[in-house]
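Input (structure):
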């Protein structure tokens, strides 16, 4: 991105934390993270009736100030998103770009963070329900945590595979519920009197939680329960393995992307100040540590110089 000229471009750089706004963007992120954490702690403490009654005015002021800050942040991001690198590549009007941003996961999380409080002020709804919804504000941390962004991207990339895994688990859940119902419903009609009632046992067994409040007592039921328990080990491992593999792949892709960027920036075996600043911005966006970035830069420089100088005599070919 060129040097920002308009206020909107400066806001976009501030939110992205790039260039001369890297430090300011980092300070803004820390301030917003602090407000989010204060809100989460306040909402948890406010659930204690005596504390909520005693400090009602303080909690109300904190909520109003927080919602105002989050609303201003949300509107500012929506306004400045058209000048972000990601959305400038979208062809069409600024309205199309803003709509694209509005429907993005992070923008929806920002909207969810302020909607419950706005509803509380505008409509006479159950306050306890709205307080719980306000806890969803913690998901705003996804914007500021590179690890959470990696996990979110892993969910998106493995969406179809995870749906297939959950479909298999749903089928096994139904089969387990039907099986234990047929075996135990005559012996324990109160516990396994219907297939929906048997699903509680099947769910606890398949997830290896094993609450122990509902158990088969017949020999056949215990044998069937053992088989389901063995199957559950594989069922739980499928989505876990998919997410772990995708998470690792996301980290590898980011490191490879940074290495490719370093390779493109190297012209004569060195990096000037502007190139260093560009790579530092990229490192921050990708969530890589300085140690990883320096290692990638050193590796690419060594590879570049090894092609310039003869490995035998040390002279240029």
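Output (sequence):
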């Amino acid at each position: 991105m060129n040097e920002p000229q308009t206020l909107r471009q400066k806001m976009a750089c501030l939110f992205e934390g790039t260039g001369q706004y890297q430090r300011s963007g980092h300070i803004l992120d820390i301030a917003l993270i602090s407000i989010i954490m204060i809100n989460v702690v306040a909402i948890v403490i406010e659930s204690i009736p005596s504390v909520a009654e005693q400090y009602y005015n303080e909690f109300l002021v904190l909520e109003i100030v927080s919602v105002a800050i989050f609303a201003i942040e949300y509107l500012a991001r929506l306004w400045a998103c058209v000048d972000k690198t990601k959305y400038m590549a979208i062809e069409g009007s600024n309205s199309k770009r803003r709509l694209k941003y509005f429907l993005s996961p992070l923008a929806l999380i920002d909207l969810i963070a302020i909607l419950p409080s706005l509803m509380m002020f505008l409509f006479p709804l159950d306050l306890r329900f709205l307080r719980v919804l306000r806890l969803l504000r913690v998901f705003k941390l996804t914007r500021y945590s590179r690890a959470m962004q990696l996990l979110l991207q892993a969910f998106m990339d493995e969406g179809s595979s995870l749906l297939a895994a959950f479909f298999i688990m749903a089928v096994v859940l139904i089969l387990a519920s039907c099986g234990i119902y047929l075996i135990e419903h005559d012996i324990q009609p109160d516990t396994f009197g219907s297939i929906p009632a048997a699903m509680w046992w099947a769910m606890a067994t398949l997830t290896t939680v094993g609450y122990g409040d509902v158990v088969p007592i017949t020999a056949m039921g215990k044998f069937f329960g053992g088989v389901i328990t063995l199957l559950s080990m594989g069922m739980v491992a499928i989505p876990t393995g998919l997410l772990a593999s995708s998470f690792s792949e996301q980290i590898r892709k980011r490191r490879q992307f940074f290495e490719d960027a370093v390779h493109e920036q190297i012209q004569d075996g060195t990096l000037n100040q502007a190139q260093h600043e560009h790579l530092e911005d990229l490192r921050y966006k990708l969530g890589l540590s300085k140690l990883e970035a320096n290692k990638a830069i050193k590796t690419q420089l060594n590879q570049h110089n090894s092609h310039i100088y003869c490995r035998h005599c040390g002279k240029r070919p």
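Notes: Residues 255 and 292 are 8 Å apart (CA to CA). The radius of gyration is 27 Å.
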